[in-house]
Amino acid sequence: MPDPNTPLSLAHLSELEVPPAELVEIAGAAGFASIGIRAMAASPGGVEYPLQTPAEQAEMRRRCAATGVEVLYVEMVSLSRATRVRDCLPLLEAGAAIGATRLAVAGDDADFGAVAERMAELCDLAAPFGIAVDLEFMPFRPVQSLAHAVDVVRRAARPNAHVLVDALHVFRSGSSLADLAGLDRALLGTFQICDAPAVAPPHDQLVVEARTNRLLPGTGGLDLRGLMAALPADIAYGVEVPLAGQYPHLAPVARLRLMVEKTRDFLRSVTGA
């Protein structure tokens, strides 16, 4: 189980309309230790903040230094046989320039061998920047489950290749907590916590739930206690709960404060602290 005071990282999806420089400020004010940046759109036409100009990168470094908030990762690369890995070089350069140490990716090809090949190439490209690559499985993408992601990461066979564990996706994909608990620690990258109703929506609504209808930890029906017991105690904790639709009357910083407060309350309830 985690320390209830473990540093928390903010997933950009939680306040995706807030640009990165402003996100650093409000994340720090709310009590987050780090953030993720949606530097590449998760789907065609989606929101993204490439941060590829020297001026943008310098401003990010200045604000991070002033607030003490770090950039944990940049996201989101889609891996398939069509992915041109060299095209990700500007993303890696931008991530390294603002201090990111991880890159989140998704698997978008039913041929897991092809996904693994692209992941291995990306890991090799990312390694000189000191960046690890975390594969996030999602039940609405071809790499749908923990088992799928572990298969790809093992095939990629790179020391900086890992699995990103998202609480919602664990349960909506029917992934096994016993399998998770039995994994080699080296396979696991980071963890994103949220809650949701115990009963899943129709399959065609899973992506809508993931992007807009997550719940604060401890307010839904997911077995988060069982999930956290299956995770290594030292895994990095991220919080991914878009709250704008649920609390439109609150300013973004107030929503982030609520996120930190409720996550800390839940972690204390789990650990008895």
CATH class division: Alpha Beta
Q: Sketch the major β-sheet.
A: 8 strands, parallel, barrel
The CATH architecture assignment turns out to be Alpha-Beta Barrel
Structural class comes to alpha/beta
Number of domains: 1
The ordered string of helix (H) and strand (E) elements is EHEHEHEHEHEHHEHHEH
**Gyration radius from CA atoms, angstroms:** 17 Å
Count of runs of 4 or more consecutive helical residues: 10
Number of strands: 8
**Shape from CA axes?**
globular
First-last Cα distance: 11 Å
User: What name does CATH use for the topology?
Assistant: TIM Barrel
Reading side by side through the largest sheet, how are the strands ordered?
1-2-3-4-5-6-7-8
Q: Provide the CATH superfamily.
A: Divalent-metal-dependent TIM barrel enzymes
Please explain how this structure is put together.
With 273 residues, the protein is α/β, with parallel strands linked by helices. The chain has a single domain (8-271), classed as TIM Barrel (Alpha-Beta Barrel), CATH 3.20.20.150. The chain is 38% helix and 16% strand. It has helices at 20-30, 54-67, 89-97, 112-126, 146-156, 167-172, 177-181, 206-212, 224-230, 252-271; strands at 8-10, 34-38, 70-79, 102-107, 132-136, 161-166, 188-193, 236-239. An 8-stranded parallel beta barrel has the order 1-2-3-4-5-6-7-8, surrounded by 5 helices. Helix 1 packs parallel to helix 2 (54-67) and helix 4 (112-126) crosses helix 5 (146-156). The model has no long low-confidence stretch (mean pLDDT 97).
